[in-house]
Design goal:
The complex is a heterodimer of chains A (323) and B (297).
Chain A (H helix, E strand, L loop, with lengths): L6 H7 L5 H6 L1 H18 L2 E4 L3 E7 L2 E6 L2 E4 L6 E7 L4 E5 L3 H6 L5 H4 E3 L5 E12 L2 H8 L1 H20 L4 H5 L2 H19 L4 E12 L5 H70 L1 H16 L5 E5 L11
Antiparallel strand pairs in A: 1-4, 2-3, 2-5, 6-8, 7-8, 8-9
Helix pairs in contact in A: 6-7, 7-9, 10-11
Chain B lengths: L1 H20 E4 L3 E7 L2 E6 L3 E4 L6 E7 L3 E3 L4 E4 L5 E12 L2 H7 L3 H21 L3 H4 L9 H20 L1 E12 L2 H71 L3 H16 L5 E5 L6 H4 L1 H7 L1
Antiparallel strand pairs in B: 1-4, 2-3, 2-5, 6-8, 7-8, 8-9
Classes of the chains: A alpha+beta (323), B alpha+beta (297).
């Protein structure tokens, strides 16, 4: 109790000499050391939070506030401590394979990569989830960093299993991927939120969806068959595209032929009748003589040709040329 | 100098005493203060708390974080006697630290108990559902999430009552067929693919044939129509020609008949024909009796 009274008179006595002189005395050295320690102690309350981090200030272990990037002033240790947590960094969680294996080129084990679809097919599927820490306090204390990261994988796996279990393998291999991706994202996010993981999913990307190696040929054959089907239909279409123009050409030909027949027939009729009418006009002027002339001319043309010309004696023979 | 040392010593002792009375509780834990080994009070809030120094009061810290229990995959039987390899996990945390402390003490024991609960609940739930409740493309048949919710609820009751543990979720991480069924599954998958491939091929044939048949039909139709049209045109042409002939020839049918008969003679009497002319044929009149013709004239 008497100890504190001792330095007081000493300070009064040393008031006269300058400050640097007082530092030289043993007591002065002790004091300045104490002062330095005190300063150092106070300095533990100053932390720099980097741009990609957030600082969580704990007072005796309890979270008091979250400090943004910049200089953060807190009470010195051990009263307050600051945990710096990177929050802007996008983290990756693979599902269906392990990052280390992927780097080394080791294929994933069947337990990792295999899923069972709703039509009871086994299918290999990998997926990559990218996420950020949205709530560092929840991330750090609700689950703990490692546990939280693995929760992303577990929840993702659970949701995938659930969704793949109601999809057909063909849907999975073709148009179902996009929907699955989106659904996985929202559902996994919901699961993580319900556990308060403080994690926000950024993207969910389905890597590859392939049938297992020992049945892949059968699957490929289906693709081939699909292509073949298309080819067969294409060929038939080619046949049709070849046939119909030909048919139309032929049809056109037939009609054109008919048209030319029409032209020919009608024109012939016109020509013939014209000739007849001309002749008739002529004949009307001198009917008898024209008829005789025509008759004789015709006989001239006809009779030289036959080889035999028989002159019958009897009247009323078989052939009657003129009546 | 000696006094200073004494005072420092006293100060240190006081500090030590103070430190043994104070404790810091993290956000991640509950603190149970034991008075001579029996629980006295529970601290739920993180921060600085006080207690009597040991050996009067001691502190037990219990982790309050959500933990994930991920037991190895196990085989289960569904209601319709199908073997399934199921890999599930549980998210759990301590809800009642005192009961937790009394019944299981640490995480490992807790997880062993929890694993037993999980196994029995998952087993009984899967055993009371058919495989199609888990795996089906019939959307109204599958209700895996309900089954898992039910498992979670039941396990939660057991774990809470028994160990002060809150089971937040039990989820099915992975489903698969057991090793001995896999070959059968693959064979079935292959058979299914073959069927689909065959179906594609015969569908291809079917559609190709249909396109061809349609093309043939179209061709026949086009040609038949053209033929009909051609016949119409020819008919019209004939009709028109007939009309032209008729109007012309009707002007003097007798003359027409005369001229036309002459033409016909020219046509049907060819080189081989033998013509028998009666001797009294007018054409030969001059040949026989030139005068007669003269007289006529």
């Amino acid at each position: 109790m008497t100890a504190p009274s001792q330095p007081a008179p000493a300070a009064r006595r040393d008031a006269a000499p300058p400050l640097w002189r007082r530092l030289g005395t043993p007591r002065g050295i002790l004091l300045s050391l104490l002062l330095l320690l005190l300063l150092d102690w106070a300095l533990t309350g100053i932390r720099v939070i980097r741009e990609d981090e957030q600082g969580i200030v704990l007072r005796f272990g309890a979270v008091t506030r979250v400090a943004p990037a910049g200089i953060c002033f807190t009470l010195p240790w051990p009263i307050e401590r600051t945990i710096r947590q990177r929050t802007t960094e996008v983290r990756t969680m693979p599902i269906g394979y392990k990052m280390v294996d992927a780097v080394r080129g080791i294929p994933p084990s069947r337990q990792e990569v295999e899923w069972v679809s709703g039509d009871k097919n086994i299918i290999n599927l990998t997926l990559t989830i990218k996420y950020v820490i949205s709530d560092p306090v929840a991330y750090l204390f609700r689950l703990g960093p490692v546990e939280a990261d693995f929760l992303v994988r577990r929840c993702g796996e659970a949701r995938l299993t659930e969704m793949i279990a109601r999809m057909g393998v063909d849907e999975l291999l073709t148009h179902g991927k996009v929907g699955l991706q989106e659904e996985t994202r929202t559902r996994t996010q919901a699961a993580l939120d319900s556990l308060g993981a403080g994690i926000r999913l950024v993207t969910v990307n389905i890597g590859e969806v392939v049938p297992p190696a020992n049945v892949i040929e059968a699957f490929n054959d289906v693709s081939t068959a699909k292509i073949e089907k298309g080819r067969m239909i294409n060929q038939a279409d080619g046949y049709r595209k070849d046939l119909l123009p030909r048919a139309r050409a032929m049809a056109n030909r037939m009609i054109q032929d008919a048209e030319s027949y029409r032209a020919e027939t009608v024109e012939r009729a016109r020509g013939e009748t014209r000739q007849f009418l001309d002749l008739l006009a002529e004949a009307r002027r001198a009917r008898d003589i024209t008829e005789v002339r025509l008759y004789l001319e015709a006989m001239e043309r006809i009779l030289p040709q036959p080889r035999k010309l028989v002159l019958g004696e009897q009247e009323g023979s078989q052939l009657r040329l003129l009546e | 100098m000696k006094r200073i040392l004494v005072s420092f010593g006293l100060f240190g002792l006081a500090l030590l005493l103070l430190l043994s009375c104070a404790f810091e509780l993290q956000e991640t834990e509950y603190g149970i203060v034991l008075f001579f080994g029996s629980p006295k009070r529970i601290h739920h809030e993180a921060g600085l708390h006080w207690k009597l120094p040991p050996p009067f009061e001691t502190l037990v810290r219990i982790d309050r974080r959500v933990k994930i229990l991920d037991p190895a995959e196990a085989e289960y039987l569904t209601l319709d006697k199908k073997n399934l390899l199921v890999d599930s996990f549980a998210a759990w945390q301590v809800e009642d630290p005192l009961q937790f402390l009394v019944t299981v003490v640490d995480r490992r024991t807790a997880e062993a108990q929890l694993e037993d609960i999980m196994r029995s609940e998952v087993g009984s739930a899967l055993g009371s559902h058919e495989l199609s409740a888990l795996l089906s493309i019939q959307q109204d048949e599958v209700h895996m999430d309900q089954i898992m919710d039910q498992i979670t609820a039941r396990a939660a009751v057991k774990a809470r009552d028994g160990y002060g543990i809150d089971v937040r979720a039990i989820r099915l991480k992975r489903l698969n067929f057991p090793e001995e069924n896999r070959q059968a599954v693959f064979r079935r998958m292959e058979a299914e693919r073959e069927r689909i491939a065959r179906q594609y091929r015969s569908e291809g044939e079917e559609q190709a044939e249909r396109v061809r048949a349609e093309a043939d039909l179209e061709q026949a139709r086009i040609l038949a129509q053209a033929e009909r049209r051609a016949r119409e045109i020819r008919g019209e042409a004939d009709a028109e020609a007939a009309r032209i002939y008729a109007t012309a020839y009707n002007q003097d049918p007798e003359f027409y008949e005369f001229v036309r008969t002459l033409e016909a003679y020219e046509q049907f009497i060819d080189d081989d024909a033998t013509i028998v002319l009666p001797s009294d044929a007018p054409l030969l009149e001059l040949l026989k009796n030139p005068k007669t013709l003269d007289g006529q004239r």
